[in-house]
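#lab-general

N.A. 3:47 PM
ok so I finally got the sequence cleaned up, no stray characters, all 466 residues accounted for. can someone with queue access submit it? mine expired

B.Y. 3:52 PM
send it over

N.A. 3:53 PM
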Amino acid sequence: MKRADLVRLDGLTRNPAAPESVLLRILAGAEGPVRGSVFERNEVPESVCDAAVSHPDREVRGYLAVGRGASGAQRARLAADPDPWVRSRVAAGPEVHGRWRKADPLPDEVCAALARDEDRQVRAWLGMFVPVPDEVWALLLADPEPEVRKSALYNWPHAPIEAVRPLLDDPDPVVRRAAAHVADVVLGSPAEIVEQVAAAESGWGRRRTVAGAVLTEELADRLYATGDEDVRAGLAANQGLPDRLVAALASDASPAVRLAVSLRPELTEERRAAIDWHVGPKDRIQPPAWVAHSLTDPVLMRACAESAHPGMRRFAAYSPHLPGDLVARLAADEDFVVRMLLCENHPAAPGELLLETLLASPFITRFEQLPQPQFPRAGLARFAASEDPGARLLVARDPEAPAELIERLSHDPSAGVRCAMARDARLPAGRLLELLDDPETMGAAAEGPALPLTAMEAILAAAGIP
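B.Y. 4:20 PM
back already:
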């Protein structure tokens, strides 16, 4: 099959107007991963799921098991598949990219059954990409197999430190190391920690090791005496650091060390303001370990959000649990990174802020906010003449954009804009067929809802599908 024919066939699998009969013919007659694309569309018809569940080829059943467009109930039909390879994929779930693009979770009772599956890999893969209930995570952390316990530690997003801490004493060293990694704790005696610091291959490695070390007064003094800037920065981020050393590091000669000290959560605003720190609008700050473990702490997150330190406000913006008044406060923050992080992490970030941030952001992740339901649609046609192709492609999201404008933008110099217009049902069929012959847009054109049935048949015929 020619590459162009494969690209068009792949696009056709995602076409929302493609009849079920077309999808079934692709599933039965195509070969390779293109069959999996049938389960990547926004909605998968039950007849297609029926065909996949009963299909003799486990590859086809596996495509349904990890299909991003299939519902949790549809994927759950394979939870009792006789092949553990298929069940492990049901357990893992679809790998969905983008913070707000969520795959439908499996039913709770199915998750519980998979957590007790006889096959170790099925249990180890459970929850890899799709969340499962906390009770199921607890079952996995208590699993008799070390591999399952280790996987659960890594797969559980934002696992409560109370659930992780007991596994720091797990009988299996691999599990202990996983627990230490998740808890951002460095295991070992003071002498062993000093050895780990010396053996670190980079400044970042030394900093991370020291930041997670369980400090004694003697160990803290010994590390401080090394004179290593990265070691001091790690000490500044270590929550067990004696206050006398916190005070000493607050006036350290290194700006990086002073900044790390200024980001300690226990400091008063007065002590924080007395430190000579600097955060520029383009400076990146890696959140210390305490941030991930404190996102549900309302008192600490409020203190961070109300801080005069932009770094602390950025940490607050990582929390999806902020109340409305703090969301409004951070949405108006003078620091762009604070506003951007709020958009990336909070489900109630204001719609206009989502749009504003997308237009201003220089990062490739700026379009990740589009699936948010509050992202504006009305009035986006005003960006048709924008110099930014990322703004022009938003026109297709405006329900009031006229077909003439969609057709005009289908001739845009940017292939991304032309593809966005090709997927729009308002694009005239004649122009859509022209884009179907353009190597840069043929895949998107095959997804276009306005594609005539005769063109769909031609795509199938070119791909050799009866």
